[in-house]
Inverse folding.
């Protein structure tokens, strides 16, 4: 599974993308965040206010309960501020 | 048409290209967004725009498609820059062209309002003392976009 981080999530985690292989039980966005947070303080800090973080699966907006699998590209980012 | 690019754009040249050969268009509305040198009471020396290559373009196309679905548009354009920019530089250009002005005005406003809340871009501000700050989504922008929800 490919994970992408943008804006301050990238700064806090210290990486813009990584390949991960979570256990099979990690099958939703919400479970994936729980699993990432358990990896260390940088992740716990980045996802501290997870309710404001947006997620996209394969470049489409997704929700915490949506399913994720090994072949997905999952992106986490803060609320957007373009223009 | 939508485009995401590093370099500057020339609004006049872009509009000429958009309207070339067209004689059925009676109204063109454009909006150009610029980098300001102040945010709240904080001086800004530079701004870096980050995006999600692939998804950003996809979202811009979707926003443009919805504008054409809602208004009788003859042509439209969204150009958004990414990378580091100085105060005064152009960030974004949207244009909407139609037979009559009402559709062009409304669609141009819709394009920029929806872009600000639905296309993945993020702004990193730098102040003269070297401090860096990621810009939060503004409630005013969300309220502006919410007007178009249906």
């Amino acid at each position: 599974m490919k994970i992408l981080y943008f804006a301050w999530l990238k700064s806090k985690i210290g990486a813009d993308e990584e390949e991960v292989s979570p256990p099979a039980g990690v099958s939703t966005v919400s479970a994936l965040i729980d699993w990432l947070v358990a990896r260390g303080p940088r992740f716990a800090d980045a996802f501290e206010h997870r309710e404001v973080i947006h997620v996209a699966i394969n470049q489409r907006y997704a929700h915490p309960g949506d399913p994720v699998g090994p072949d997905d590209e999952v992106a986490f980012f803060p609320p957007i501020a373009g223009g | 048409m939508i485009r995401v690019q590093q370099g500057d754009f020339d609004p006049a040249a872009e509009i000429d290209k958009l309207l070339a050969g067209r004689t059925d268009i009676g109204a063109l509305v454009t909006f150009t967004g610029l980098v300001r040198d102040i945010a709240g009471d904080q001086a800004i020396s530079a701004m870096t725009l980050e995006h999600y290559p692939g998804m950003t373009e996809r979202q811009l196309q979707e926003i443009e498609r919805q504008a054409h679905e809602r208004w009788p548009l003859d042509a439209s354009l969204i150009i958004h820059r990414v990378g580091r920019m100085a105060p005064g530089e152009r960030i974004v250009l949207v244009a909407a062209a139609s037979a009559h002005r009402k559709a062009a005005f409304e669609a141009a406003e819709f394009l920029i309002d929806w872009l600000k809340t639905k296309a993945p871009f993020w702004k990193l501000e730098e102040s003269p003392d070297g401090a860096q700050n990621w810009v939060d989504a503004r409630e005013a922008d969300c309220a502006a976009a919410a007007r178009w929800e249906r």
Summary: Helices of chain A lie at 7-13, 29-37, 41-46. Strands of chain A lie at 2-5, 17-19, 54-57, 60-62, 73-77. The mean pLDDT of chain A is 95.
